[in-house]
Write a sequence for this structure.
């Protein structure tokens, strides 16, 4: 299997998370066997008065950054993988800017994958949040078209 | 101080989380000194193909259920309180229905509040998710109009 | 399979966690399909100047309370199950007394078990700590003598 | 204030965590404003049949590594700081060797400190565990002798 690259995963994310105007919500800036960097393209959808990115939006970015690590290592058919556990510390107010999620694989096993993700605003050094995310690995049926959306958890 | 009741907090949530059509996203069904029950009124915004409620939507509900406990006990001026830590286990696929968040106060101190929240779909017994949420308590300036939106963390 | 009862699990814990003087560290006070109650019999080993029970001791109790739920439901051969994730909030100073761990099963699947555990000191109402614990289920080889000690994680 | 160095903190840890034979349980190998490296000197106390380091022992190391970051930055009088939240993922079986805890400060504020800690066995690359730890900062009374043991949580 050729591991999907950043562009292929970005395209897959666009199909999985369609927006009302068709523009991408996430961009995969870099991906390797042990890491991934994602950008959350800040939109009105996430911005509340006070120009901040909400907690759930931050969680979504961390979650998708971890999912990207799985998709790269195991292929797009691993898109059936679901979040089993997420633990997040909120550290600083995000800036009115795109949000970057830097994921690192802590352990990739046959059944589970554990990643840590650091979130920061473009142009700021202080971390906005830190997450540790565990996934239960699962595969789509062999004949499933690879346009699946991220499924809810869990399967066991 | 008269503690805000369920209706007052529901109204406050509607002001804090406006939706495009003006309808409420959350309804506070019950609130006491030690607990709160919230309903997430499922909308297209949260439903993805496959009729599920996303992880971030579940996190948002758990977070707001915990915030409700703080608003009731400390007053709406405590709306400046921010999430410091959130830990969530995803247990089962939600049904295509409203989602209920049952929050219990584990500890309410002067600076912090810790709650646990159980999420389940209306009509289903199996828990969809379980969260433990820590808040850093903070108050709005005395003269602030109580229409504030939930601020991002943290202040320290 | 007859599910092991409280006494049988207590005996198993004594074999798994031998103490220097042979006395039990844990007592299973109650166990059912959905819950377990354990008592940590406070000893000098855990008490530090200031008469407190350490964080690691509290973690150990929560962990074993969750493990008890698994042993009861799946049999002692499930003793090979290992902790994959633990999240703990420390809420109040424990009293100079035995510590009780009340575990509830949030979800028991084929591969994983998620429990929440509430810790409190005998004679005190305020919770000392709250934990959410995830286990990866595993079984000892069929011929293994059931004296095994709790293995370290994880297997995957 | 001169920030305590690795040796001074090691000595303080020895006073805080006395062992039956007087030997150190922990050694601070390195400390800076943003990080700390601790070694857990494996002893019979922690080793169970199967030559493994228990979950609680791993938690203890992670906790003390985070505490070390606080002691270095804020001085030994900050020893009254207590763990408010700990989240830990267990990734691999430790080897029969000393355990290293690498802590990084994610955020150090006036009231709270959040660290992440990576645990690995000497001689092994695969992480044994990963923890994220939050502390509530507190100071000993000005006249307290700096021999205090680590207090249990929390104060608020």
């Amino acid at each position: 299997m050729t591991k999907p690259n950043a562009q292929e995963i970005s395209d897959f994310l666009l199909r999985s998370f369609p927006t009302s105007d068709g523009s991408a919500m996430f961009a995969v800036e870099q991906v390797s066997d042990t890491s991934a960097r994602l950008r959350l393209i800040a939109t009105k959808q996430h911005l509340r008065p006070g120009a901040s990115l909400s907690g759930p939006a931050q969680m979504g970015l961390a979650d998708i950054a971890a999912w990207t690590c799985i998709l790269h290592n195991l292929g797009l058919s691993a898109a059936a993988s679901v979040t089993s556990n997420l633990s997040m510390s909120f550290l600083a107010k995000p800036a009115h800017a795109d949000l970057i999620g830097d994921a690192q694989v802590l352990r990739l096993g046959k059944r589970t994958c554990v990643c840590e993700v650091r979130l920061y605003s473009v142009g700021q050094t202080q971390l906005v949040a830190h997450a540790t995310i565990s996934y239960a690995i699962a595969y789509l049926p062999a004949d499933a078209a690879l346009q699946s959306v991220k499924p809810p958890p869990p399967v066991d």
